[in-house]
Design a protein that fits this description.
Blueprint (H helix, E strand, L loop, with lengths): L1 E4 L7 H14 L3 E4 L12 H14 L2 E3 L8 E4 L7 E5 L6 H13 L5 E7 L9 H13 L5 E7 L8 E7 L8 E3 L5 E11 L3 H15 L6 E5 L6 E10 L3 E7 L6 H18 L5 H13 L3 E5 L4 H13 L4 E7 L2 E6 L1
Parallel strand pairs: 1-2, 5-6, 9-14, 10-11
Antiparallel strand pairs: 2-4, 3-4, 6-8, 7-8, 10-12, 12-13, 14-16, 15-16
Helix pairs in contact: 1-2, 1-3, 1-8, 2-3, 5-6, 7-8
Length: 337
């Protein structure tokens, strides 16, 4: 039985999600306490609980402590089964977080899977839908993984109600990931997405982002989103020959549209200056499939506490070596296996 202290390191829900994914993939049981102990509301929130219940269903596992607010769970995995799944969160909690939990396991399933997820798609606390579709699954495609994501409806905080559909084919995970050369920059483009709010918000975001990044008039488009409630997201794609990165700013009550655009532009400029292939969110996402498969390497910006905590969680389940070292100022090389 693996024992995990959920308060260590970054101390957030990622520890729970990674532990669930690794437990399903390796067949090892675990118990975790002090879940989200340092958060304003400790314990399992709705999106975390949905991840726990989704993991239990995907592998016909057994779990103790699976309830809202629980600060400890014990999970015993069973056999991973592909098939058709539906996981409604019931709030604006991130659908992407539940996807992260079940994706590595379903790659190891005995048949293809489809997963319908309902909840938030752009909430500021988790990677947006477009990042998972274009950046994460784009990276996975470089090692032959066949998976796709489609969004039927956007889900913003607080209404939620987003609908995302995933299709995942089993994969051997027998290819090494090598993301150490991003290639030439092909283009930077963006989208200001607005739902049930004045269109001027999106127009101001688009104008500011164009100015901040010195982009052509048509580089940032404005799009009305289908959503149950009001919401706004500003997205920027950085397309290189070898990788696509996506950065997102979510509109907040009381925060000016120009400020949202400035934040996104700052993230884009930081990524471009770093010469890193992989951004901070993608670095987190790559660790599990690499450690469970044939490993590989990638370059990233300075590791975050979130990343380092995820490394520690992986090493509690696997003896796969994970090394990360600074090669140049602000550029780090990560090697797995």
């Amino acid at each position: 039985m693996i024992r995990i202290d959920g308060s260590r390191g970054e101390g957030g829900g990622q520890i729970v999600r990674s532990a669930l994914a690794l437990s399903m993939a390796t067949g090892q049981s675990f118990t975790i306490d002090n879940i989200r102990a340092g958060r304003k509301k400790p314990g399992l929130m709705r999106q975390h609980l949905t991840s726990v219940l989704a993991a239990r269903e995907v592998c016909d596992g057994k779990v103790d402590g699976a309830e809202l607010g629980s600060t400890a769970i014990t999970f015993h995995p069973g056999e991973i089964c592909g098939g058709d799944y539906h996981f409604p969160i019931g709030t604006a909690g991130g659908t992407g977080l539940v996807f992260q939990t079940v994706f590595p396991a379903l790659l190891l399933a005995d048949e293809p899977s489809t997963v319908k997820l309902e909840g938030g798609t752009h909430n500021g606390m988790s990677p947006p839908f477009e990042f998972l579709r274009d950046s994460f699954l784009g990276a996975m495609a470089t090692i032959g993984i066949e998976a796709s994501l489609e969004m039927d409806r956007a889900g913003f905080y607080p209404a939620g109600g987003g609908i995302v559909r995933a299709s995942i084919n089993p994969a051997a995970l027998d290819q090494k990931i090598d993301l150490t050369d991003r290639g030439e920059l092909k283009q930077i483009h963006g989208e200001a997405r607005i739902a049930n709010l004045p269109g001027g918000i999106a127009e101001r975001e688009a104008k500011t982002l164009r100015a901040q990044l010195d982009l052509d008039e048509g580089a940032i488009r404005i799009r009305n989103a289908d959503a149950l409630g009001p919401g706004n997201a500003l997205l920027a794609w950085i397309e290189f020959e070898g990788i696509t990165e996506v950065y997102c700013g979510v509109g907040e009550h009381g925060v000016r549209a120009e400020r949202i655009a400035e934040r996104v532009a700052k993230s884009v400029r930081r990524h471009l200056r770093s010469n890193a292939v992989v951004g901070p969110h993608l670095a987190d996402q790559l660790l599990l499939p690499m450690a469970l498969g044939s490993g590989g390497r990638f370059t990233m910006m300075r590791p975050s506490l979130h990343f380092e905590t995820n490394v520690e969680t992986v090493l509690q389940f696997l003896d796969t070596p994970i090394r990360y070292m600074e090669e140049n100022e602000g550029l780090w090389l990560v090697e797995v296996g």
